[in-house]
Design goal:
Distance between the termini: 22 Å
Number of helices: 17
Radius of gyration: 20 Å
Structural class: mainly alpha
Bound molecules: alpha-D-glucopyranose
């Protein structure tokens, strides 16, 4: 297919997955609105319909909870083809039935992009309406996912990280007692090959965490205190630090002085806190189990998001470059979601090795901003090559380039349109 044909296909994927203002990740496997999927989707829509891009994010915030949290899934209508649905979550925090935790907070960053690239003349008005909602969500993160003020952000469930079965969660997940779960039937493994999905033992524990949080009524203070899983995640921490910087830029543009001061405080706390994620033995940022104080020992794609978060000191950058080049010598396509030289790496199992387009986009953006255009370009070229070879898959093997998981995937299409497509780059030039 030519680039123009792929551009067209990508647009059709977004419009086909559009449910009337919000977009599902893919038909079958994921029939609802997912938080960070939607936000990346907005970037894709923005290349041809900016009004629709804003709508996507506005509809996501319609599901915001009273405490400020923006849930990871909004169950706008019941769909028996998905498990676990609303009855398993048992939440009551917001106006739309939803899951009980959040997902990586990319929204402020994309809102800033929409404002900066605006062709509608309405961006400031729409950003002004979203701004207090973004503030409330960010404040919720600082309060309940960093309750001790450490400057790192915890996830209370592997799903909250957006990187569900990453090896970083293995030890902490193993420590979760399997309890309070009803007999259940998974649906994901009837949509895609079970060899590409998490194992049953993991699934039992995923549901046990949900049951534990449900027991305390999803009260975020109680969840922070009692949840059997509470792990500081370099992915969410870096994405959120970046989002705070972007929210600060928005606050300044919109003349929100008081809020700008509050955000500056968050940034300072996180810049210093991020050091707790640095593992000196492997020279990389890793996850930190806040219940046991134990760091993980592997490098994941999130380790490369430090520059995206604006952490570009010489030591961090030198270590990132060295790991990048070492990993690039082991696989054909960058960036594997886990270090190919680590014992837990699996080329085709979800977050234990495969390449994800939107992660490549964020890492590349950070590298480009940190003055490393060559590695940023390598990521863009690899992402384009994967999509040209294997289509708009959910994720890809870093070795063969084969597409895996769900097909006609919205965020892969969106990342193609906003960044990976060579024709997009030609237009921008
Ligand atoms: C999987 C991914 C998560 C994503 C969701 C919908 O659960 O791990 O990041 O948001 O699918 O695409």
């Amino acid at each position: 297919m030519s680039h123009a044909d792929l551009d067209q296909t990508a647009k059709s994927i977004l419009t086909d997955n559009d449910q009337g203002g919000y977009t599902i990740p893919t038909k079958g496997l994921y029939p609802y609105q997912w938080n960070w999927d939607s936000v990346f989707v907005a970037l894709g829509f923005a290349t041809f319909d900016q009004d629709r891009a804003w709508r996507e994010i506005e509809m996501l915030f319609e599901g915001q909870w009273r405490d400020g949290m923006v849930p990871h899934i909004l169950f706008r209508k019941d769909d028996p083809s998905y498990f676990p649905g609303p009855s398993v979550w048992g939440t009551n925090g917001g106006p739309i039935p939803s899951s009980g935790h959040s997902q990586p907070p990319v929204a402020a960053s994309v809102v800033l992009d929409l404002v900066r690239g605006d062709r509608t003349g309405q961006a400031l008005e729409r950003a002004t309406a979203l701004f207090p909602k973004l503030m409330a969500w960010h404040r919720w993160y600082m309060t309940y996912r960093d309750p001790d003020g450490l400057g790192v952000i915890a996830v209370i469930h592997p799903w909250e990280s957006g990187r569900d079965n990453l090896p970083d969660w293995d030890d902490a997940l193993r420590a979760v007692e399997v309890r309070d779960i009803e007999p259940y039937e998974r649906k994901d493994t009837s949509h895609v090959d079970p060899a590409m999905r998490p194992h049953k033992e993991d699934y039992d524990r995923y549901l046990s965490i949900v049951a534990a949080c449900r027991k305390v009524g999803w009260d975020p203070a109680k969840v922070a205190e009692t949840c059997p899983f509470f792990v500081a995640d370099p992915g969410v921490t870096f994405i959120f630090l970046r989002a705070n910087r972007d929210l600060l830029a928005l606050a300044q543009q919109l003349g929100m002085g008081k809020e700008a001061d509050e955000i500056r405080g968050w940034i300072a706390r996180m810049e210093s806190g991020a050091k707790a994620l640095w593992n000196p033995d492997i020279q990389a940022h890793v996850a930190l189990d806040l219940r046991t104080g134990k760091q993980t020992d592997g490098i994941s794609c999130a380790s490369f998001l430090a520059p995206y978060a604006g952490l570009t000191d010489t030591a961090t950058m030198a270590a990132q470059r060295a790991h990048f080049d070492r990993m690039a010598s082991k696989v054909r396509y960058m960036m594997p979601s886990y270090d190919p030289e680590h014992g837990c790496y699996e080329a085709l199992r979800y977050w234990r090795g495969p390449v994800w387009a939107m992660i490549n986009y964020m890492i590349a953006r950070g590298f480009a901003e940190a003055g490393d255009p060559a590695r940023a370009e390598r990521l863009r070229n690899d992402t384009a090559a994967l999509i040209e070879t294997s289509g708009f898959a959910e994720y890809f093997s870093p070795e063969s380039g084969a597409g895996a998981g769900g097909g006609t995937f919205s965020w892969t299409a969106a990342i193609w349109l906003t960044w990976a497509s060579p024709s997009h780059v030609e237009q921008a030039a």
